[in-house]
Design brief:
By secondary structure, the chain is mainly α. It contains six helices and no strands. The protein has helices spanning about 1-20, 25-30, 40-60, 85-100, 105-110, 115-145. It is globular, with a radius of gyration of 19 Å.
Length: about 150
Amino acid sequence: MKKHILIYLIGLTFGLGISISGMANPAKVINFFDFAGSWDPSLAFVMGGAVTVAFIGYRLVFRREAPIWGKGFNLPGTRQIDARLIGGSLVFGIGWGIAGFCPGGALPALGTGRSEVFIFVVALVAGILLAKALQKASARKKPKAAQA
């Protein structure tokens, strides 16, 4: 029960931060990318604050042997920069620039009831499902290639 309350409070804090900072407003996000027009640098400050908090948080958390609720830390197995990482980053950035929403900002924005937020979240879920399907298809092809 304590775990669920903590998860709820963390999510609530994140959602409030996104909402208060204006990052649930796609116009504000799109203006961050509009260097030639109505550029709004406030997103850089929000991101800088988030990176600072995450940096400090990771330093504190990784001093522990294991997470409070879990057997071990779930970290990436590689630091390799490959086509999958670059492609995913490009899709994320392009989608964010076009829609004005990132997944983290869109979820709290669902509370606004605006249709474009729901459309974005549906497209987000569809993209996740498509990526998983492509991943599974790719994994099935690899053993066949190894046998040939």
